[in-house]
Every structure is written in structure tokens, then in C-alpha cells.
Specification:
Blueprint lengths: L14 H31 L2 H8 L3 H7 L3 H19 L8 H18 L2 H11 L7 H24 L5 H27 L6 H22 L1
């Protein structure tokens, strides 16, 4: 055993490790609470006091992790986007058309499981404030990452499309997904059941029709 290293026969965590683990757990509780409140009240309705009450942690703990509400909401968007991105995948087998349909329907599932970055982000992106919050910048950045991911998938599955066509299809695909997300959100508010999977299946076939049209135009 080297000098300065203490014996730990019980295998207990060292204080530093426990502190990091506790800090990560507290951060997760804060983000969970902020996600719930922002989903209910939006960006403007969210406050550190409300997050403190919902998470059961003092405001000082929240400020230890996040400088202000804007930083907190930005973190909510980043985490939700990471969850969305992890849920969205293109299958490794099948034709390009089959893969596109599968991946597009998977977007519906990803939206249902992690809708927060879209709900908050679209509100921030469409709104205008004298000083734009950093959370808006974060959403626009992660949205560009999402668009790049879609472009890359399309370029791989449909190599006969040129760069301009790939960009057009990617923008069209994301615009349609946004519209279906908004329709589901409005339907939920009105108590209307929306079959997102069925609608995204239709959306996938619409994307394929756009691809076929662009091919014919060449």
C-alpha cells in the first residue's frame, strides 16, 4: 500500500466518491423537478423557488449546480435531447425504405418518452425576448445536431440523392415531425387520443414520396 493510501477492508466508498455521487443524485432530482414544472408552466412560469419545493432541495443546492433559472432550463433541454437521441435509431438491416419507415416511427416513441426539449425548445425558439435566454441557444444548437443526424442517415440510406436533396428531405422530415408533435400536444390538452405511431408511419411514406419525386426531377 502506497503512502497516503488508507486501508478500506469493508470496501466502503471514499468520502470524495460519496460526495460526487450525492452531487449527481441531487442534480438529477433538480432536473427532474425542473422538467416537470417547465412542462406544466413553461419557461416563464418556472422558478427556482418552485423547483426547490418540488425537488425537496434548498435553493442554495440548486444554485450550487446552476447559476440561474436559464442555466437550469438549458440543462433540462440538453438532457431531454440526449434521451431523445438515444431512443432514435436507424435499424442495421432492411432496405433503405424499410429503415426510414422504422426510424421515423421510432421518432414518435422518442417524442413520447422525452418530449421536454421539443416542448420547451419550440416555445423558446418561436418566442421573442429583448434578451434571448441561453436555453434558446441550447435548443437551436441541439436542433442543428438533430438535423445533422437526420441528414447523415438519409445520405447513408439513399446515396443517390445529392447534398441539396438530402438537405431538403431532412428539413421536410423534421418539419413534419414538429407538426405531429404539436398535434399530439394539442390533442392531449383537449382529451383527444392521437395515434402517433400511425401518423408517423404516414409521415414516413410521405418522406419516401418526396425522395421519389426528387429522384424523378434529376
Amino acid at each position: 500500500m502506497s503512502s497516503g493510501e488508507t486501508e478500506n477492508p469493508a470496501g466502503e466508498d471514499k468520502p470524495g466518491r460519496r460526495t460526487r455521487a450525492n452531487g449527481e443524485a441531487s442534480r438529477a432530482r433538480i432536473l427532474d423537478a425542473a422538467t416537470e414544472i417547465a412542462g406544466e408552466l413553461g419557461y416563464d412560469g418556472t422558478s427556482i423557488a418552485l423547483v426547490s419545493g418540488r425537488s425537496g432541495l434548498p435553493a442554495s443546492s440548486i444554485y450550487w449546480h446552476f447559476a440561474n433559472k436559464d442555466e437550469l432550463i438549458a440543462a433540462v433541454i440538453e438532457r431531454s435531447f440526449a434521451e431523445w437521441l438515444a431512443a432514435w435509431e436507424v435499424p442495421e438491416s432492411g432496405s433503405g425504405r424499410e429503415r426510414l419507415i422504422h426510424a421515423t416511427v421510432a421518432v414518435a416513441q422518442a417524442q413520447a418518452s422525452s418530449p421536454d426539449f421539443l416542448r420547451l425548445g419550440l416555445t423558446l425558439a418561436l418566442g421573442r425576448r429583448p434578451v434571448e435566454p441561453r436555453a434558446r441557444e441550447v435548443f437551436l444548437r441541439v436542433r442543428e445536431t438533430a438535423l445533422a443526424t437526420v441528414r447523415a442517415a438519409l445520405a447513408e440510406q439513399f446515396p443517390d440523392l445529392d447534398g441539396q436533396a438530402v438537405q431538403q428531405v431532412a428539413v421536410y422530415a423534421m418539419a413534419g415531425a414538429d407538426g405531429l408533435f404539436i398535434a399530439r400536444e394539442i390533442g392531449a390538452d383537449e382529451g383527444e387520443a392521437i395515434d402517433s405511431a400511425a401518423l408517423f408511419d404516414l409521415h414516413a411514406h410521405a418522406i419516401l414520396a418526396v425522395i421519389d419525386r426528387l429522384r424523378t426531377a434529376d
